[in-house]
Amino acid sequence: VTKNMNIQANFISLNETPTSTIDIEEQVDFIYPNPFTTYFSLKLNLPAGSEYQIRLRDKQGRLITILDEGTSVTEQTLNYDEELNSLKAGVYLLEIFSPNEPLKTMKIIKL
C-alpha cells in the first residue's frame, strides 16, 4: 500500500537575531569538532571589551550549565572539555549571548 503524503515544514533561521550592532556571522568563526566526543573549541572574534555568556541547553531547551562568561579580547578560542564529561550522547544547543540579547544558537552533537 502506497500513500501519498504532503509534508509542510516551517523553518526558522537561527541566524536571525533581534536588532543588534554585532553581526554574529563574523563573530563566531567555528566550533570544532562537531560532532564531538570529549571536547570542542569555540572561536570567537567579538569586539574587545564585549561581554558574553555561553550557555549549554538540552534539546528541550532546559539550561544545563553556563560554560563561560566574561569580557572578550579581540580574537579568542575557548576550549571546553572537563565541563562536558557528564554529558550523555545527544544533541545540545549552544547559546552565545551578549547582555540581554541572544547572538546565536547552534546545535552541537556529543557522540
Task: Itemize the secondary structure elements and their pairings.
Elements: H1 24-27, E1 28-32, E2 40-44, E3 51-58, E4 63-71, E5 76-80, E6 90-98, E7 101-110
Antiparallel strand pairs: 1-2, 2-5, 3-4, 3-6, 6-7
Explain briefly what this protein structure is:
This protein is mainly beta and 111 residues long.
Keywords for this structure?
mainly beta; four-stranded antiparallel β-sheet; disordered N terminus; 7 strands; single chain; 1 helix; three-stranded antiparallel β-sheet; 111 residues; 46% strand
Plain-language structure description:
This protein has one helix spanning 24-27, and strands at 28-32, 40-44, 51-58, 63-71, 76-80, 90-98, 101-110. The chain is mainly beta and 111 residues long. The strands form two sheets. A four-stranded antiparallel β-sheet has the order 4-3-6-7, with no helix packed on it. Strands 1-2-5 form a three-stranded antiparallel β-sheet. It is globular and about 35 Å long. The chain starts with 23 loop residues before the first helix and ends with a strand. The model is unreliable at 1-24 (pLDDT under 50).
- Given the structure, what is the number of helices? 1
Write out the strand line-up for the largest beta sheet, numbering strands in chain order: 4-3-6-7
Q: What is the distance, rounded to the nearest whole angstrom, between the alpha carbons of the first and last residues?
A: 37 Å
Low-confidence stretches: 1-24
Tell me, rounded to a whole number, the average pLDDT.
77
What is the number of beta strands? Answer: 7
Name the structural class: mainly beta
* SSE pattern: HEEEEEEE
The coarse overall form would be globular
Largest sheet: 4 strands, antiparallel
Proportion of residues in β-strands: over 45%
Q: Into which percent range does the helicity of residues fall?
A: under 10%
Radius of gyration: 16 Å
